[in-house]
Amino acid sequence: MTTKYEDKFIFDPDFCHNEREVESKLIISYLLPALGYSTNEWRQEVKFNRFRLDFLAESSDNEKGVVIEAKHPDQNLNDHLVQLTNYMIDLDLTYGLLTNGKEIRIYKQAGNSIDLIFNEFAYGIENKIDDIRALIGRETLANSSNTNVKMKITNVIKAFINKDSNKDDVNMKIIAIYHNKGGVGKTTTVVNLAATFSKAGKKVLIIDLDSQANTTFATGLVNFGDEDKDNLKDNYIYHLLKSRKAFSISDVARSSNFCSHPIDVIPSHIMLMKHEKELNEYKYVQGILVKKLQEVKDQYDIVLIDTPPSLNLYAGLALITADYLLIPSDLKAFSNEGLNNVREFIEENNEFREMTNRPAIEVLGVLPTKISTNAKFIQGTLQKRIASIKQRYNFEVMNSIIFEREDIAKCTEQTLELGDQEVAAPRSIVDFKSNSKSANEFQSLAEEIMQKIGLS
Ligand SMILES: Nc1ncnc2c1ncn2[C@@H]1O[C@H](COP(=O)(O)OP(=O)(O)OP(=O)(O)O)[C@@H](O)[C@H]1O
Ligand SMILES: [Mg+2]
After folding, report:
1. 94 in ligand 1 pocket by Cβ < 6 Å?
2. Ion ligand 2 — residues with CB under 5 Å?
3. Do residues 94 and 186 share a domain?
4. Which of 6, 30, 379, 394 has its CA 20 to 30 A from that of 299?
5. Whole-prediction pTM
6. For 222-278, how does the pLDDT look when each residue is reduced to its tens digit (9 = 90+)?
7. How far apart are CA 249 and CA 16, in angstroms?
């Protein structure tokens, strides 16, 4: 095969600032053509069963394929090995390429795990392209039928092209999780519900609109020990809100690190607090999330928005943007009284929605959270409290209940030993204890929500 690409091309990782640029500048512009795949032999964003592959390349005259996963340049590739292993083993793909634009790795399936067979810096990759081509180039794979390469993948691309357009793909549902009372379990609900939806095969995006950034932490994105290594402050929800054209959802979204199932997160940052006045001055800020989310409506099934315990701009943006509202509450006196504020705040934001020709937000209901497991309490007091939410505050109450359990508190506190350092390694309940009572409670909640919002 000719070497016209490497004759002309010098790849510079400094030109890749986000995942999309890794995809366009490294994979689409260079790697795929240099490896011999013509444009009808690879597909981007391939949905297959519960997986969503960044790229799948396979030659049209046989059924051999390689999955290619692109990550943000700040991402550590080690954090994505579980995901790649799942893809390769479940879809029975022999080869997988993983890159963040700085490093390129190729893995080969080996039974129930994957082996690293190529690992180079992306800088100067044009000098190594022959080695990559020998491993996963179109011709190598096309000629490998008699080797011990095990490839019984059915032609995923053909299936993808022939597939009727999937209704779920264009029916993204946005759910805000909000209560103006603090500490009632909003963040806990967002992260564990996201994990449960993703486990069920849904494509999930979380938006953290709270400057406390607890969701950003709980989804494993705060992996720096000191401020000098803070890789969030230059690219988080603030940037998405402040610019009309720059910073799309995919520029700011990052792959989470707390769940073995894929979930994207728009992170927050403590500095968000300082920007409220400035953002309030932009006329377009009220509608910016609605508009930017429209651009990714085919990429996600569910968007969950975490909110601050406040009546501020950010909480308002969540109520303006979302289709549905879930109100976690421990059902205690102050939380109940707070429901009056929630009601007024909903009405205020609904007025804005009406002015912009959007329907009122649909309240799914109050979700009882952090509920005591004491049997007497459950039979007596709890029932009375639920009844009073309906009578006094006129809110529906969800059938699902999230009880107060140690497992839930523990899973965000998980740590890892790295050398002599202990680093935070939060997990979702789905990963921490998949068969626990708490995991089952989130499963029931996810099912109840899917039924209410018409998502199967
Ligand atoms: N079901 C539960 N069982 C045990 N602990 C819980 C449960 N839900 C939440 N918690 C704990 O309660 C605390 C507050 O929860 P969380 O951060 O989810 O609340 P929040 O409403 O998001 O708070 P804020 O208003 O500050 O954002 C956390 O320490 C969390 O671990
Ligand atoms: Mg919170």
Report:
1. no
2. 186-187, 214
3. no
4. 30
5. 0.69
6. 877 777 788 899 999 999 999 998 999 999 999 998 998 999 999 999 999 999 999
7. 16
